[in-house]
Structure formats: structure tokens, C-alpha cells
Specification:
Helix content: 40-55%
Oligomer: single chain
Number of domains: 2
CATH class of the largest domain: Alpha Beta
Structural class: alpha/beta
CATH topology of the largest domain: Rossmann fold
Strand order of the largest sheet: 4-3-5-6-7
Strand content: 15-25%
Length: 328
Amino acid sequence: MTEAPGGAALSDRDVARRVLTTEAEGLLALASALDDSFVRALDLLGSASGRIVVTGMGKSGHVARKIAATLASTGAPSLFVHPAEASHGDLGMIVPGDAVLALSNSGETAELADLVAHCHRFGLPLVAITARAGSALAKAANEALILPPAEEACPMGLAPTTSTSMQMALGDALAVALLTRRGFTAQDFRRFHPGGRLGQRLRRVRDVMHTGDAVPLATPDTGMDRALVTMTEKRFGCLGVTGPDGALIGILTDGDLRRSMDAGLLSRRVGEIMTHDPRTIGPDALADEALRAMNAPERRVTTLFVVNREGVPEGILHVHDLLRVGQV
């Protein structure tokens, strides 16, 4: 248990809520304080023909590493440079065409001095994130993003908590604003995240669908005896029905068979009992879109035919295919 200022004991949950509330209030203050300096900083970072070099010392350094990783993963070439290492040779990593984003809550971090001087020497754009408008870093920067006054969540007001949360959020804001300016797409995002669950979510339907002879197809005049054999062989629990031009006009499912079950079923034709205008998806759609289509609230399905712009089937996709690639 922890004591509140008045002496009352606080539970661990109360302490956690106070931390989260304090940091949330800091983020709200940061959002309200955004002004044209953010746009000018964005212009400087976005116009860099090279990379965005992110730097900071201590806790600000840890935040800077994350910001650099976020920028790089969203299409803005970036790297983290440790300011102390920069003074011992790593300044050579920062070259004309680069822009620098420096983080320091106090704005007086001594280790940043050589890096700031390097920016001035080579005319590199320098954007600062700091809590002090009159600090050395803010004055040296081409543009300074000033964090609003906010209480640290630490009860002693010493451990960087709210301040680092604001730094992190401001870095996210810069990264997302930059990717929005560039028209960065989900497909672009996938190129930087080919592995893991995220990479799988951004795979295209054409990458996971079944094609060729695996696709169960028939025409409307196909007899039900032959249709049942095809459905059994292909094992998708359905049959796509195509018209004279090869376009998909219907689907025959297990549900259609159950609803039409009678003594004369085998003497009927596919076109008599099929479902018209089945749900389909294009080959260039994302696997994530296919999952949403299968889970549409009006009616859930387990299979989608994949058709081209003319409506001609190119493949078939089963929910198990999405399970296989880690989508579900």
C-alpha cells in the first residue's frame, strides 16, 4: 500500500490509475498545445532527401530509439544515433541531406552539444522536442516542439513518466502525419513488415487462394449427381456456378442441398437450387479484407470465390487458408 498526500493508504490499483490518469492529462494538454510549429517541423523532416536521425540521452534516448523505429517502419528512412557515441566517431553517420530530431526534456543535455554543432556546420535541419522553450537545444534548433507543463506521474515528481509519454506520442504524431502526407498504403506497410502476424494480415488474397483444378466449378445445367461428386472431390463444401461467358453467377452450398433435399434431388440441375449473386472477393484484396467479408454480420460464410474484374473465378479461399497463415 502507498500513502496519499493526506495520509490515506492507496491500493496498488489506485496508484496505477493515478499514473494513467496523470499521463493521459499530459497527452491531452499536448494535443491542445499543438500549433504551427508542428507543421513547420514536419516540413523540415519531410523534405530531407536522406534520413531522419533521431537522438537523445537517457530516457529520452530510449524514446528516440522507438521513434526512429516507427519512422523507419512507416516509410521514412531513419536511424538512432547515441549522442555520446556521436562525439566519438558516429557523427560520420550523419551526412548532408539528413535531418535531425533531438529529444531532451530539459533542453540542456550536454552530450548533445557536438551533434548540434555538427548540424550547424553542415546546415542540417534540426528539430527539437523539449519542455523548455528557452533552453539551449530549443534556441539552437530550426524548429522546437515544446512540451506543455505537465506533472510527472512519479509521486516525487522526479522519474520521467508523463514527459516521456508525451515525447513518445509526439513522435508517433510526426510519423503518422508524415506517412499521411506521402499517401503511405497498407501494401507499403507490408513491405516493411513481411514477417509475423502483421505481415500475414497484409498478405494478398492471391497469395493464399487455391487455383486451377482445385477450384470447384460447374454450369447451371450440370446434373446434381455430377455436382455432388465434384463437391465431394474438391472438399470446399460448395460449388461455383458459371455462365456462358465464364463469369460466376451462383454458388451451390451444403445449405442449398439441405434446403432442397427430397427424393427428386439427383434428377435436378444445379441452376435450379443454387444461390444467385454469391459473395466474392478480388485477388488483390488483403487477407484481412477477406476475413471481414467472411464475417459480415448479415451472413457469415466460410468460403469466398475469388473473381477478376469481369467476374470470372480465378480461385477460391477458405477460412482455413486464413488460419494457416495466422490471419484468424
